[in-house]
């Protein structure tokens, strides 16, 4: 039996009282919580002066874009569709997918996110898909691999991507092969086009497949629908449910948001990208007020913004507070007398919210006896962290990725003493840089040819 005892941390549990004390990990799971635990023969990690928290869950990230950082920083949504989906994505080879997913996942781990929802929609062939999964596997983090649909401009004689359903054969291949287990670190889900980006028969086909396969199924919804009556029809046919996840949703009327929530679906907010690309007010406020436990948050595209969950949590919280303030000012002419959202609420979106969205809340998202030991230790000796009066406020508003001292995934240490373990980061990031530059050069060559 492997045993690790984390001693003397300020423990933020997320589903019980916080305390200062110990965490005992046995065979990859949290077996005991409390002060002054005894564990003879256990490996001891002295966490005196540190904050212990559950690993972040980045519930929406396009990890394949890790080698394209900064390219979309000034892009609108229209620029993104043209430049990314119809452009750069078409230049990806399987090896580009693998190195981007490996380094992208390692970056998440190093920054305190132990689980991601990897929204993979540059997988033009099964080889691209397999390479993306292999990159995640090599990195050693926990991920829900959401098999998506590329969105290139159609060639003559080809259908538009909006007319192409999720390939059943490929989903079945993955589900009976590399992603057969729901207990592994890398598990299966789908990233479908949804009612905004596909026609009615494709929406029905994809939702039916999602229900049949019982897979977490996510879709972007950020503007006008190709099928306008979708949500009422899907509800009538019993195709909505807890396995359905809507990303963004900014353009949905309040009654439609409440409809999908009442049917058990979850909503993911990626506030920074939504603010940049003009999606409208993030749905944080309405979702939180109607069904707070159905809200998760994520970073979205690293081609546009930083991927660390400290920044994601801060921006999401402050944008929600700002929205609340605007409403109060419109009604009263003055600022709110009560804060609209708390730091603990925001940290819940970034941990348990993501765990629920991925249907993993029985495994991750909180420091709870019996759950898998996905644990992050933050050092608090740096100038940006001292003094710590409130550990939750420190996590949300003061901590940065460089404060992540130790990361454990399923009881296995992947970072300790501020250093990633058993990985040559310089060599891998050199490969990522070479991949990203090749993709960009090929894309620019295609532009010049036209």
TrEMBL record:
Region listing for Disordered, in residue ranges: 147-169
Superkingdom as given in the UniProt entry: Bacteria
Positions with biased composition (Basic and acidic residues): 150-161
InterPro entries in the record: Amidohydro-rel, Metal-dep_hydrolase_composite, Metal_Hydrolase, MTA/SAH_deaminase
Xref: Pfam families: Amidohydro_1
Domain named Amidohydrolase-related: residues: 51-414
GO molecular function: hydrolase activity, acting on carbon-nitrogen (but not peptide) bonds
Record-stated family: Belongs to the metallo-dependent hydrolases superfamily. ATZ/TRZ family.
UniProt xrefs under NCBIfam families: PRK08204.1
Protein name in UniProt: Cytosine deaminase
Organism: Histidinibacterium lentulum
């Amino acid at each position: 039996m492997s045993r690790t005892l984390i001693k003397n941390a300020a423990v933020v549990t997320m589903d019980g009282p916080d305390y200062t004390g110990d965490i005992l990990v046995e065979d990859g799971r949290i077996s005991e919580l409390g002060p002054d635990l005894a564990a003879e023969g256990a490996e001891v990690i002295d966490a005196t002066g540190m904050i212990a928290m559950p690993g972040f869950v980045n519930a929406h990230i396009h990890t394949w874009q890790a080698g394209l950082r900064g390219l979309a920083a000034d892009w609108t949504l229209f620029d993104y569709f043209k430049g990314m989906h119809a452009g750069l994505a078409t230049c990806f080879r399987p090896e580009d997918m693998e190195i981007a997913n490996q380094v992208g996942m390692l970056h998440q781990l190093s920054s305190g996110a132990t689980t991601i929802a990897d929204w993979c929609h540059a997988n033009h062939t099964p080889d691209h898909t397999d390479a993306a999964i292999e990159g995640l596997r090599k990195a050693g983090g926990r991920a829900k691999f959401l098999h998506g649909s590329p969105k290139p401009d159609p060639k003559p004689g080809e259908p538009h991507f909006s007319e192409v359903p999720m390939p059943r054969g490929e989903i079945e291949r993955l589900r009976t092969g590399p992603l057969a287990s729901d207990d592994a670190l890398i598990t299966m889900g789908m990233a479908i086009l949804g009612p905004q980006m596909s026609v009615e028969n494709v929406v029905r086909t994809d939702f039916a497949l999602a229900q049949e396969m019982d897979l977490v199924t996510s879709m972007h919804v950020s503007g006008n629908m190709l099928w306008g009556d979708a949500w009422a029809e899907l509800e009538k046919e019993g195709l909505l449910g807890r396995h359905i996840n809507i990303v963004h949703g900014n353009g949905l009327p309040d009654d439609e948001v409440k409809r999908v929530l009442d049917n058990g679906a979850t909503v993911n907010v990626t506030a920074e990208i939504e603010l940049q690309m003009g999606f409208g007010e993030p749905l944080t406020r309405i979702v939180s007020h109607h069904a707070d436990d159905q809200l998760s948050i994520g970073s979205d595209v690293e081609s546009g913004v930083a991927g660390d969950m400290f920044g994601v949590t801060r921006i999401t919280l402050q944008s929600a507070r700002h929205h609340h303030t605007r409403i109060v000012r419109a009604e009263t002419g003055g600022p709110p007398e009560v804060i609209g959202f708390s730091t603990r609420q925001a940290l819940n979106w970034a941990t348990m919210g993501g765990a629920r969205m991925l249907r993993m809340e029985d495994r991750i998202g909180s420091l709870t006896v019996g759950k898998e030991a996905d644990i992050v230790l933050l050092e608090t000796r740096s100038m940006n962290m001292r003094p710590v009066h409130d550990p939750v406020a420190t996590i949300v508003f003061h901590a940065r990725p460089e404060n992540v001292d130790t990361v454990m995934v399923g009881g296995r240490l992947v970072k300790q003493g501020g250093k990633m373990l058993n990985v040559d980061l310089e060599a891998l990031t050199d490969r990522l840089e070479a991949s990203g530059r090749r993709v960009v050069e090929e894309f620019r060559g295609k532009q010049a040819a036209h």
